[in-house]
Amino acid sequence: MNRKWYWVIGALILLPVLAHLVYAIVVSPFANYYITVDQFVARSADSPVRVGGVVVPGSIRWDNATRTLRFQIAGERATLNVAYRAVAPDALRDQVTAIVEGARAPDGTFLATSVRVRCPHQYLPAGW
C-alpha cells in the first residue's frame, strides 16, 4: 500500500480523537446545563438535579440558628423554595439567575448542595 494511504487512515483516526479531547478540555467544564423551575415543579422524581431560575426579590434570608440560607427562585409560572447550608456566592442577590444543585425534600423545599450565579452582567464594562 502507498505511504500516502497510511497518512490518510492515521489522520481519519486521529482527528476525531483530538476533537473530542479539545471539547472535553475547553468546552465541557464551562457547560452548565440545568432545567428550569417550571420543568422541575412539573416532574415527580426526587433525584439530584440542577435547577436554574431568577432569585425572587426580597426572598434571601439567612437563618443564624440553623446556619441556613433560604431564598426563592422563579420560573415563568412557578417558584421554588431553596434551602442551602453553606456560604453563598457573593454575587447572589435579587434578580440574578441562580443555578442550584440538589434534590427535593419531603416538604417540597429544594435542598441545595451547591449554589452558583450564572454570568452576572455587572462585571462587564459599560457599553458591552
Describe it.
- This protein is α+β, with helices and mostly antiparallel strands and 128 residues long.
- The chain folds into two domains: 1-31; 33-123, OB fold (Dihydrolipoamide Acetyltransferase, E2P) (Beta Barrel), CATH 2.40.50.
- The chain is built from two helices and seven strands.
- It has helices at residues 3-27, 37-42, and strands at residues 35-36, 49-55, 61-63, 68-74, 79-84, 97-104, 110-117.
- It has a five-stranded mixed β-barrel.
- The radius of gyration is 21 Å and the shape is elongated.
- The model has no long low-confidence stretch (mean pLDDT 84).
Sheet with most strands: strand arrangement: 2-4-5-7-6
Amino- and carboxy-terminal Cα gap: 57 Å
Describe the largest sheet. Answer: 5 strands, mixed, barrel
- The average pLDDT is 84
- Give Rg in angstroms: 21 Å
Bulk shape: elongated
Low-confidence residue ranges: none
Question: In a nutshell, what does this entry contain?
Answer:
Helices cover 24% and strands 32% of the residues.
SSE blueprint:
Layout: H1 3-27, E1 35-36, H2 37-42, E2 49-55, E3 61-63, E4 68-74, E5 79-84, E6 97-104, E7 110-117
Parallel strand pairs: 1-2, 5-7
Antiparallel strand pairs: 2-4, 2-6, 3-4, 4-5, 6-7
Task: Considering the chains and any ligands shown, give keywords for the structure.
single chain; 32% strand; 2 domains; 128 residues; OB fold (Dihydrolipoamide Acetyltransferase, E2P); elongated; 24% helix
